[in-house]
């Protein structure tokens, strides 16, 4: 696929995530942001904290990779096998439950609306990284996988993985939000 | 691990107030007058009953956390007629509205925390504040709509159509309620439900 078009599409998806979180979640009171549909399922803040934990790892890795001097940026890019598998596992359309690593599971943690501010800041960083990526070779395998660092994703793989994973859990948070209204059961 | 004390989860009155603030026409003053009327506090363990048949229950409850089933105990089985869970208001309607003994049971399917307002306090505030009259009318309209949907479900002879309608209407139920109770609610055996899902 064309590298420029790939990055522009991701840019639009990140902007959409920023808009959803700032318009739908940021105005909610802490009492609602912390509602857990059941003891083991996540509140809105827990969904976002899970994403923040991934961003705290992947965004600095991407920044480091993009800071390295690279040759000319090819006009075309395609995902690696590992990249395709990783994105397929987390994209929102895949209904299969994935097991969450314990250190990435925010269940029962102490969260405040600061979690939302952090998520929005990560989106701004991601937009800056996408702009920076225009002058790089997206196929360069430079991003160690969080849970198995010997495996590497390409820069393009990692960018789309982060965005698709965020879409998955922002949708999950949207489903929680839709339950945040009183309803009479008779 | 207690789902009630862990995490900065809001206390029941605080959560009720936050949910009421989502209703556009209720004022801060309305909410401040209403929330303190929920005097009764109830904590149920799994299997505990909120209401048993024959009891007259004059409270409307707000579920802060937990899951409950509303069922009709027939001679041969316990027929699930509905569920209550976090953020829902629940009562034995004939009991609350008409003071009749309940024909239904309401039982906790997991540890649940509720607060209740008495019929007398509730009626008084609905009389005194038109905004609450409007709120209650909208809730009742929505409940009647739900009952009509449910009646259509029950008229459909095909179990797969009954299931499809419930999945479209209340997908979250399948995360909250054990399958055997959903099967009973859909008037099918647990085996049929497993086969269809």
From TrEMBL, chain A:
Domain of life: Bacteria
Protein name according to UniProt: DinB superfamily protein
Organism expressing this protein natively: Hymenobacter daecheongensis DSM 21074
Boundaries of every DinB-like domain copy: 25-173
Signal peptide: none
InterPro entries: DinB-like, DinB/YfiT-like
UniProtKB/TrEMBL annotation, chain B:
GO molecular function: kinase activity
UniProt-listed InterPro entries: cNMP-bd_dom, cNMP-bd_dom_sf, RmlC-like_jellyroll
Keyword Transmembrane attributed: no
A Pfam family that the UniProt record links to this protein: cNMP_binding
Statement: the UniProt record of this protein carries the keyword Transferase: yes
Residue runs in coiled coils: none
Location of the Cyclic nucleotide-binding domain: 44-126
Keywords, in A-Z order: Kinase, Transferase
Protein name: cAMP-binding domain of CRP or a regulatory subunit of cAMP-dependent protein kinases
């Amino acid at each position: 696929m064309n590298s420029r078009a790939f990055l522009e599409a991701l840019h639009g998806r990140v902007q959409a995530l920023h808009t959803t979180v700032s318009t739908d979640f940021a105005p909610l009171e802490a009492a609602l942001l912390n509602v857990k549909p059941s003891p083991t399922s996540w509140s809105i803040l827990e969904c976002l904290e899970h994403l923040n934990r991934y961003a705290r790892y992947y965004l600095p890795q991407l920044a480091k990779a993009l800071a390295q001097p690279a040759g000319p940026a090819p006009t075309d890019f395609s995902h690696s096998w590992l990249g395709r598998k990783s994105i397929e596992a987390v994209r929102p359309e895949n209904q299969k439950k994935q097991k969450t690593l314990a250190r990435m599971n925010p269940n029962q943690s102490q969260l405040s609306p600061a979690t939302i501010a952090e998520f929005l800041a990560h989106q701004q960083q991601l937009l800056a990284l996408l702009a920076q990526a225009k002058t790089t070779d997206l196929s360069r395998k430079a991003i160690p996988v969080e849970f198995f660092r010997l495996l590497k994703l390409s820069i393009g793989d990692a960018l789309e993985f982060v965005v698709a994973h965020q879409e998955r859990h922002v949708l999950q948070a949207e489903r929680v939000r839709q339950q945040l209204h009183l309803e009479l059961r008779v | 691990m207690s789902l009630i004390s862990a995490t900065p989860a809001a206390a029941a009155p605080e959560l009720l107030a936050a949910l009421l603030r989502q209703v556009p026409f209720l004022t801060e003053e309305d909410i401040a007058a209403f929330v303190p009327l929920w005097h009764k506090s109830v904590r149920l363990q799994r299997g505990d009953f909120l209401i048993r048949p024959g009891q007259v229950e004059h409270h409307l409850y707000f579920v802060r956390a937990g899951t409950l089933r509303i069922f009709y105990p027939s001679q041969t089985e316990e027929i699930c007629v509905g569920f209550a869970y976090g953020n829902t208001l629940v009562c034995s309607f004939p009991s609350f509205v008409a003071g009749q003994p309940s024909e239904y049971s309401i039982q906790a399917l997991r540890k649940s925390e509720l607060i209740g307002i008495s019929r007398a306090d509730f009626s008084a505030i609905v009389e005194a504040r038109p905004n609450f009259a409007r709120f209650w009318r909208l809730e009742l309209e929505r409940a009647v709509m739900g009952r009509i949907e449910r009646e259509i479900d029950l008229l459909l002879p095909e179990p797969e159509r009954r299931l499809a309608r419930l999945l479209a209407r209340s997908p979250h139920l399948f995360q909250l309620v054990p399958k055997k109770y959903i099967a009973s609610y859909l008037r099918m055996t647990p085996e049929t439900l497993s086969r269809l899902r």
